[in-house]
Design brief:
With 477 residues, this protein is an alpha/beta fold. The chain is 31% helix and 20% strand. It is built from 13 helices and 17 strands. The strands form two sheets. Strands 1, 2, 3, 4, 5, 14, 15, 16 and 17 form a nine-stranded mixed sheet that branches. Strands 6-7-8-9-10-11-12-13 form an eight-stranded parallel sheet. Strand 16 and strand 17 form a beta hairpin. Helix 1 crosses helix 2 and helix 11 runs antiparallel to helix 12. The model has no long low-confidence stretch (mean pLDDT 96). The structure holds dihydropyrimidine-2,4(1H,3H)-dione (DUC) and zinc ion (2 copies). Dihydropyrimidine-2,4(1H,3H)-dione binds next to loops.
Length: 477
């Protein structure tokens, strides 16, 4: 490892705007034009037959975070980011949850933990879940000014904000320049359906999917779109699962509402039926919102193809299938007492590479834009997510011919099972570079713990020319 110039020759290089056989040059940890470095002094690597893409940017992962039920994730920054690198992801955005400290103090605490553990470059979304303190909004503004340009709010999960509070966050984001990311599901519909299922003895994991009705997502997404429209404030709708929500987002974007949306591999490839296995085991696939149907898969691919869905993140939420995680409330506990979430940091890029590049579901540039460029741009991660002069030299060397079938426990996180067991993919990262250094070679991590850097986000990356509602302008002028 070092900062010596490097030339990678002869690979198929896919960027956000090009796809073809070319050479790539790296100097001082950045991509540069091959003509600008001295071939005599550079290290040359023959990459004929390989595919090169930017390093993955995963902007939705839970690391060292307590769940709504008070359970700590199975992964530390070390184990989570190790598996991320092995799957070709070099930048992560995880969460700084609200604690009794100020927002900035909590973010500092997370930055400190990441500074000793993380091997990926990283940033944090600030979770706002309690605005009751008189200084809460002022504190939140300070955290944004300190370089945390995204705020996460919930409409459910026992940590939801009221509509009125969400308005305060949107107004603040507008003034300070921050992206508001939302877990959008209607809490009342979920609560009523869950209570009714449990009262009738429908307690197995498969009922979890029923307990999060489609209309809960549709309602919350449609309402958040109206809020984004009122304030003309950029909103990112996390983990979209239903085709109706895709349609609502498409029509909002057509009207010029500053709304963007994410989905995840488990909503593209898994179904609600996957939870229908005997006993507790379906808990391994429990997440919120739940997986849906093949019809929803098709709508999401259509949504990705036409830009309605901008990004695919993992929503890595790691819980072991034992008493520390999924079975913390004991074997046979009802679905509402089981932690939600699947591991995904290591599998997101390979699953998407297989679907888009190997199987040709979209063009290669769509893979890069979905998994690298757009996540970075929308989350204000400067110089991340593409291969172009001046960008950080984060890249993945793929062997496009390796075919691999996932096994029951072959991920390098700390979960102990792979929810993609039995899934066969083609294409695997053989080498990964982060800022010009090889951090994965032959499926082995070489990066020291804590070698990932915090990515300050001094400015908001999205520019919107949306105009707010007349009443907003009247009220604020
Ligand atoms: N859903 C989330 O929104 N986050 C963590 C895990 C989950 O299932
Ligand atoms: Zn969520
Ligand atoms: Zn999540």
């Amino acid at each position: 490892m070092g900062t010596k110039d490097i030339i990678l020759r002869g690979a198929r290089v896919i960027t956000s705007s090009s796809d073809g056989i070319t050479d790539d040059a790296i100097s001082d940890g950045k991509f540069t034009a091959p003509t600008s470095i001295e071939p005599q002094t550079a290290t040359e690597i023959d990459c004929t037959g390989a595919v090169l893409t930017p390093g993955g940017v995963d902007v939705h992962c839970h690391i060292e975070q307590l769940s709504g039920m008070g359970l700590m994730n199975a992964d530390t920054f070390e184990t989570a980011t190790r598996s991320a690198l092995l799957g070709g992801t070099t930048t992560t955005v995880s969460f700084s949850p609200q604690t009794k400290d100020t927002f900035s103090a909590s973010a500092k605490d997370y930055a400190q933990r990441a500074s000793t553990g993380a091997m990926t470059d990283h940033a944090f979304h600030i979770i706002a879940s309690d605005l009751s303190a008189p200084s809460a909004l002022q504190d939140l503004a300070k955290a944004v000014q300190a370089g945390h340009r995204s705020i996460k709010v919930f409409t459910t999960y026992n940590i939801q904000l009221s509509d009125r509070e969400i308005c305060d966050v949107l107004a603040l984001a507008n003034t300070e320049g921050a992206l508001v990311c939302v877990h959008a599901e209607n809490d009342g519909l979920i609560g009523w359906t869950k209570d009714t299922l449990l009262a009738r003895g429908k307690t197995e994991p498969k009922w979890h999917a029923v307990s999060h009705p489609r209309l809960a997502e549709i309602d919350a997404v449609e309402r958040l779109i109206r809020f984004a429209e009122f304030f003309a404030t950029p909103v990112m709708l996390f983990h979209i699962s239903t085709h109706e929500a895709v349609d609502a987002i498409r029509s909002a974007k057509t009207r010029g509402v500053p709304v963007w949306a994410e989905t995840c591999p488990h909503y593209l490839f898994m179904r609600a039926d996957d939870l229908d296995v005997p006993g507790d085991e379906g808990a391994k696939w429990m997440c919120s919102p739940p997986q849906r149907t093949e019809h929803d898969h098709a709508a999401r691919w259509g949504g990705r193809a036409d830009g309605t869905l901008s990004i695919v993140s993992s929503d890595h939420a790691p819980y072991r299938y034992d008493e520390t995680g999924k079975l913390a409330a004991g074997p046979g506990a009802d679905f509402s007492k089981k932690a939600n979430g699947l591991p995904g940091l290591e599998t997101r890029m390979p699953l998407m590479f297989d679907a888009i590049v190997s199987q040709g579901r979209l063009d290669g540039q769509a893979f890069v834009r979905t998994c690298c460029t757009e996540p970075a741009r929308l989350h204000s991660l400067a110089n991340k997510g593409d291969i172009a002069p001046g960008y950080d030299a984060d890249l993945v060397v793929w062997d496009p011919n390796t075919t691999r079938t996932f096994g029951p426990n072959d991920l390098r996180d700390n979960v102990g099972d792979n929810p993609w067991d039995g899934t066969t993919i083609t294409g695997w990262p053989t080498r990964v570079m982060r800022r010009g250094e090889w951090v994965v070679v032959d499926d082995q991590v070489r990066a020291p713990c804590g070698s990932g850097r915090w990515c300050p986000r001094p400015h908001m990356g999205i520019k919107t020319d949306a105009t707010p509602a007349t009443e907003y302008t009247q009220a604020t002028s």
